[in-house]
C-alpha cells in the first residue's frame, strides 16, 4: 500500500520467512511495479525453500506440540527489504500466527 501523494517505483523485493523462530524460506522478486498515490498493488515473489528446512520445521513443530499439533498455532515472521527507485531500500516486518483450530 502506498499512503503517499506520489507514486512509488518498486524495483525489487527480498524476504525471509521464519516459522516458530526457524528459517523456513527465502523470497526474491525483480518485478518492477509502480504503486499509484494512495493505491495498492500485489507483487509476486518467488519463494525458495530447502527440503531440509521444511522437514526440520515440521519435525520440530511436532516435537514441541506432541499430541496437540492440530490445535497449536504456527508463529510466522516475514521480514525483508523493498527496493524503491530513487528512494533507497526500506525494511519491512510482519508477524502473526496460523491457528489451525479455528
Task: Describe this structure as you would to a colleague.
The chain is mostly beta strands and 102 residues long. The protein has a single domain (8-98), classed as Immunoglobulin-like (Sandwich), CATH 2.60.40.10. 15% of the residues lie in helices and 47% in strands. The chain contains 1 helix and 6 strands; from the N terminus they run ββββαββ. Strands 1, 2, 3, 4, 5 and 6 form a 6-stranded antiparallel beta sheet that branches. The two termini are 28 Å apart. The mean pLDDT is 85.
Q: Would you summarize the structure shown here?
A:
The protein is mainly β. Helices cover 15% and strands 47% of the residues. Strands 1, 2, 3, 4, 5 and 6 form a six-stranded antiparallel sheet that branches.
Topology:
Layout: E1 8-19, E2 22-29, E3 33-35, E4 46-48, H1 51-65, E5 74-84, E6 88-98
Antiparallel strand pairs: 1-2, 1-3, 1-5, 2-4, 5-6
Amino acid at each position: 500500500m502506498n499512503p503517499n501523494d506520489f507514486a512509488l517505483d518498486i524495483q525489487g523485493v527480498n524476504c525471509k520467512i521464519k516459522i516458530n523462530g526457524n528459517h523456513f524460506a527465502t523470497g526474491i522478486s525483480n518485478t518492477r511495479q509502480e504503486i499509484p498515490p494512495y493505491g495498492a498493488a500485489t507483487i509476486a515473489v518467488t519463494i525458495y525453500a530447502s527440503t531440509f528446512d521444511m522437514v526440520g520445521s515440521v519435525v520440530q513443530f511436532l516435537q514441541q506440540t506432541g499430541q496437540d499439533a492440530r490445535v497449536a498455532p504456527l508463529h510466522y515472521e516475514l521480514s525483508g527489504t523493498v527496493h524503491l527507485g530513487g528512494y533507497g531500500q526500506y525494511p519491512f516486518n510482519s508477524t502473526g500466527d496460523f491457528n489451525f483450530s479455528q
